[in-house]
Every structure is written in C-alpha cells, then in structure tokens.
Amino acid sequence: MSLTDWISEPINWFFAAIGLLVLVSAIKVVTARNVVHSALFLVATLAGTAGLFIILAAEFVAWVLVLVYIGAVIVLFLFGIMITRAPTGTDEGLDNQGKVIPALLSLTVFGLMTWASLDAFGSREIVSGGEVVSVEQIGESLLGRFVMPFEVVSFVLLAALIGGITIARRDATPLEEEQGARS
Amino acid sequence: MLLNQFLILAAALFALGIYGLLVRRNIVLILLAVELMLNAVNINLIAFEAVLNTPEAIGQVFAIFVITVAAAEVGIGLAIVLLIFRNRRSANVDDLQLMRY
Asked: Of A53, A84, A125, which is closest to B1 when you measure between CB atoms?
C-alpha cells in the first residue's frame, strides 16, 4: 500500500490526528516538570486511546476506558499527588541524573518492536467499516467462555479494595487504644 | 487502515513508558509510566481483535481484564505510596534505601 493510497482513506486522517495527540501527550507525561501536568497529560493520552478504540470499532471498551481511567484512576492519582504533597511547582528533582541509558534502552525496545511487527504484518490491513462488536457479544463472552477469569478478576478487585484500606489505614497510637479500651 | 500503524503507535507508547519508568524519581510518576505501558498493551489487543474478528470478541474481553487489573494495581500502589510517605516523609525512590545492603 503506497502512501497516497494511505492518505486517500479519510479514516487515516483521524488516525493521524489522534495518534499525534497520543504521542505528544505521552511524551509530555514522561518529561513534564510538574507532577499535576504529568497526570493531566495522561488524561489526554487516554482520551486519544479511547478515540483509537472507536476507530477500531470497539465502542464498549472505549467508554470503559473513559469511565475507569479518566473517571477513577486519574482522580486517584491526583489524590495521591495531593496527599504525598509532591512538589506542585516546577521541580528539578523529579528525574534521575542519567537519562542517556534509559533513552537508549527505550529506543532499542521501540526499534525491536517496530521491526518485529513490520516483519510479521507487513501490509496486513484492517477492514474499516466492519461490524461494531455489540455489548451483547461482549457480555455473553464475559459470562460464558470467560466466566472463570471474570470471577477471578472480581476477586482481585475485592482483594485490592480490602488491601488498600488495610495498608493505608492509620493505626491507632497506644494512647488512643488505651482510651478506646477505657470508654 | 494498516494493522502496523496501530502496532507501531503502541510500541512507541510502550517505549515511552519504559523511559518514564527508568527516568522518574517520584513514585507517583513511575506509576503513571506503568499506566502508559498498560495502555499500549490495550491498543495492541484491540487492534488484533479488529483484524481477527473473533466471534467471542476475545481481544476486547482481554482489554477489559487489563483495565480492571490496572485499576486494582493503582489502588494498591497508591496505598503503598501513602504508607511510605507517612513513614519516610518522601515520595522519592532514591530515599528508600533501607533494604539495600
């Protein structure tokens, strides 16, 4: 498929725009000098990802991503940032000194993955305008073939809930325990 | 649409996640980088699902599992960060050298 063919498909314009948004904001997530900005750029990355999912006809997962990530996880992150009182102004101490080796390592990983996928799926195409996977299909799959993993994941969530409360709870000081026992 | 355009974008996100994971010192920012990597995995799953068109939408179901596990991971991770901050008054990984030697 030549470049002109690729550009002539209108859906690829959307892909280019959203992909650029995702890439730029992902770069800002790992380079921003402000913790809160970093978290907010992650919102842009995730919103762009949801757009990509809609291009790929995965509407349900796109909205799950928006609800769970942008709605809940980012709020959790912002609370975490506020509670740990991480410096909200610009701070030079956010990054390590050595950045060359991590950059080289991540470029190597990117190069290897790109080479592998180009090698394996050279010009494999996704047929656009295919049928959107219905929520009914996903629901039947979740509660049919994948009912055991579904239950395991729900147990993981329950364990994480209880574990999170147990870990983050402030233990009573000996004095408070004594007062509690007296009253 | 080519399959590779999605795979390469996901590879770029994953590489950026690795970079952030290694470069950042603040624990909360390291967790943000982990989220980027999980997001790259989700893009791969959805792209392959769009190619293969399995009758049971397996790729999308797995993406939902990944999202759920990521939510649990963030909850536990931030609870641990909170506990570390309460004990050490710091959220920098450089300050956590207690178990080093």
From this structure: A125
Nearest CB among B26, B39, B67 relative to A86 is that of B26
- Identify all chain B residues contacting A29, using CB atoms and an 8 Å cutoff: 16, 20, 32-33, 36
pLDDT tens-digit series, residues A85-109: 655 555 666 777 788 999 999 999 9
Residue A179 Cα, gap to closest chain B Cα (Å): 24
The token pair at A146 is: 């994948």
User: In which element (H, E) is residue B36 found?
Assistant: helix B27-52
Of residues A80, A102, A145, nearest to B81 (C-beta)? A80
What is the arithmetic mean of pLDDT over A70-82?
89
- pTM score: 0.88
Domains of chain B: 3-91 (1.10.287.3510)
Look at B63 and A58 and tell me if their CB atoms are within 8 Å.
yes
Q: Which domain holds residue A178?
A: 134-183
Q: Predicted ipTM?
A: 0.90
- How far apart, in whole angstroms, are the C-alpha atoms of residue B70 and residue B56? 23
Q: Is A96 exposed, middle or buried (0-12, 13-18, 19+ CB in 10 A)?
A: middle
Residue numbers of A between 22 and 51 with CB closer than 8 Å to B = 22-23, 26-27, 29-30, 35, 38-39, 42, 45-46, 49
Last residue of a domain, one of A74, A90, A106: A90
Confidence at residue A169, expressed as pLDDT on a 0 to 100 scale: 82
- When mean pLDDT is compared across A46-50, A78-82, B56-60, B94-98, the lowest value belongs to B94-98
* Helix, strand or coil, per DSSP, at residue B2: strand
User: Both ends of chain A: CA-CA distance in Å?
Assistant: 79
